[in-house]
Amino acid sequence: MTSQTPHPDQPWLIMNGRPEGEPAKMRLFCIHYAGATASIFKSWHDALPPEVELVAVQMPGREYRFSEPLLTDMNEIAPAIADAIAPLLDKPYALFGHSMGILIGFNVVRELRARGLRQPGFLVASGRNAPQFKWADTGMEKLPDEEFVAAVRDYNGTPEALLSDPSMWDLWLPRLRADLAVSAEYEHEDQPPLDCPILVLFADGDRLATKAGLEGWRAQTTSDVRYVSFTGDHFFLHGSEKDVLAEVNVELRRQLEETGGQSDTRQHNTRAAVGLA
Asked: To the nearest whole percent, how much of the chain has pLDDT over 90?
């Protein structure tokens, strides 16, 4: 088992230490989707290769950061996260993000590059079109409460108990609206592509991810892009968690081998794909 501990000096990060302080040879930074918290990754660490330390990013306005102001401006979010993780780039690393999480993660990597800091061994872009594509549901975050809740229900990712109880709306609607505004207000800036591989994960029933949008990730790197499709909707991340982690582990083991680390030799069934149908 591992322990989850907010970084003592950096509220943006939750450290998932190896048992008995075993040293990590690589880190995996994970950024949650809109409306969620870093706790969605609490089950992941024990499924990763033993040399990998998971570091989850926690946005303000939730869990132990509940009293902090919510953020919507990528120009404020990405530099703050870059500040937080910069001291942890002493080891090779990768970055995973789902939906809003990878939009943020992509911009964090750009920010790190602008500072001349270490780049990731690979990115995992989950449940999201490439960043040059405008978010499909822009404007949803401004809907009146009842219409907003109805739209959220269609995503099939929020417990019905929260959706059907108006007395609970004040607890989670502001956070979700703010997170959705991150995507809605994002203005993409053309820059040279990254040079790391990208693993793109998507679901066949996710209306927010289009073929053109997913193919767009090829324009964001000079390296390889690998696509893996899952059955499900926008939140396939949870229903297919075991298979998602298997695909992430394929890339982690490859990175460990390339950097001289020793990875777990257990085999996983994967559903490899080199392109979109």
From this structure: 81
pTM of the entire predicted model: 0.91
**Residue 103 to residue 74: CA distance in whole angstroms:** 9
pLDDT in tens, 80-101: 999 999 999 999 999 999 999 9
- Domains in the chain, CATH or no CATH each: 3-258 (3.40.50.1820)
Q: What is the tens place of the pLDDT at every residue in 256-265?
A: 999 875 443 3
Taking the C-alpha atoms of residue 88 and residue 77, their distance in angstroms, rounded to an integer, is 18
Of 39, 99, 164, 229, which one is the catalytic site residue?
99
Return the residue matching tokens 């203005």: 187
Per-residue model confidence as pLDDT tens digits over 239-251:
999 999 999 999 9
Query: Does residue 229 have an active-site annotation?
Result: no
In three-state secondary structure terms, 60 is coil
Residues 7 and 20: their CA atoms lie apart, in Å, by 17
Q: Are 174 and 70 in contact (CB under 8 A)?
A: yes
List alpha helices for the chain, DSSP H.
74-85, 100-114, 145-155, 160-163, 169-184, 211-215, 236-239, 241-258
Res 208 pLDDT > 90: yes
Burial label, 19 (beta-carbon count in 10 A; 0-12, 13-18, 19+): exposed
**What are the φ/ψ torsions at residue 4 (nearest 5 degrees)?**
-110, 120
Stretch (H or E) spanning 40: none
Instruction: Name the residue with higher pLDDT: 126 or 20.
Output: 126
